[in-house]
Amino acid sequence: MKYTIALLAGDGIGPEVVNQAVKALQAVGDTFGHEFEFEEAVVGAIAIDQTGDPLPEATLDVCKRSNAVLFGAIGDPKYDNNPDAKVRPEQGLLKLRKELGLFTNIRPVKAYETLLDKSPLKKDIIEGTDMVIYRELTGGIYFGEKKLSEDGTVASDLCEYSEAEIERIAHLAFKAARTRKKKVTLVDKANVLESSRLWRRVVTTIAKSYEDVALDFLFVDNAAMQMILNPSQFDVILTENMFGDIISDEGSVIGGSIGLLASASVGNDVAMFEPIHGSFPQGAGKDIANPIASVLSAAMLLAHLGLHEEAATVNKAVERAIEKQIVTSDLNKNSEYGTNSVGDYIANTIANIDEETTR
Ligand code: IPM
Ligand code: MN
């Protein structure tokens, strides 16, 4: 079967890590007899440099006519330190999420047995952690009305949610829990925020149609603490946009490196797959970025297309790389492996997976 994949590599280390995901997909194509056609398009700072727009219309068109989007990373320090910048790379990503209707961001957080000592947290705390964060992605404070008073001394960002926006992601979270450990934890700030109280009401009602799934609630401040005190208590975490942004970065500490965390953004139609890490500009072009998050994002892409055996093969190849310490220096200080050699090892392992599994 033939699939078209939009490649939005973006800025910094984005292109390097996306290249490794492409190698993995090509190896899957060769091994399982699929054809992946890649179409590249610009987004983020590089798009601003080339066109003045962080999400040019042409890029959006490429995404809309593809079966899926593989995204790298965006961001450039020249914008971070300039609060007056009118156009920012991040606007490209936010607009893309909105335009493609990607209302749910799925971020799995897992402790790999062979990496337990890489985490700054104690081994017995993180052991057995296997959770997935369902982060609302097109609403809340990210997209509410922004105001700045004329004299520039007062600013506000509105956090707004509708019932419908909460319902659609809640259903996805409960369905996911059904295939996992059957527990949903809603993370909110219902002791303070009206929008959080709406989340509680809506999610409590929806839970009634999923009687086999347990629902509990945590305030976000407590959740931030529980994430590092006892992360293995979680199965599916359901939360609004900004809380999800924050606790998913926190979750990345559990696995030992943010370079391991993949994500899927799904919605009405075309889905997008991206590592949760940023563009790491200091690491760009040095062959040191960890490509695993990008490769695992490609595995999520395969699963989304219904190619489950193929996705499992990619995951297995990544696990093999980790077991054999064929990892970048974020996971092994003295590593002799770089972005490319880790990517090559994974692609090779995919191509030879039958021999690998019988070994
Ligand atoms: C993420 C990123 C983005 C976000 C930024 C780059 C806009 O941090 O995907 O988590 O805040 O959503
Ligand atoms: Mn983030």
TrEMBL record:
Keywords of this entry: Amino-acid biosynthesis, Branched-chain amino acid biosynthesis, Cytoplasm, Leucine biosynthesis, Magnesium, Manganese, Metal-binding, NAD, Oxidoreductase
Gene Ontology MF annotations: 3-isopropylmalate dehydrogenase activity; magnesium ion binding; NAD binding
Stated family: Belongs to the isocitrate and isopropylmalate dehydrogenases family. LeuB type 1 subfamily.
Lineage of source species: Bacteria, Pseudomonadati, Bacteroidota, Flavobacteriia, Flavobacteriales
Domain Isopropylmalate dehydrogenase-like stretches: 4-346
PANTHER family, alphabetized: 3-ISOPROPYLMALATE DEHYDROGENASE
Reactions catalysed, as given in the entry: (2R,3S)-3-isopropylmalate + NAD(+) = 4-methyl-2-oxopentanoate + CO2 + NADH
A Pfam match: Iso_dh
Gene name linked to the record: leuB
Protein name stated in the entry: 3-isopropylmalate dehydrogenase
NCBIfam families documented for this protein: leuB (TIGR00169)
Organism: Pustulibacterium marinum
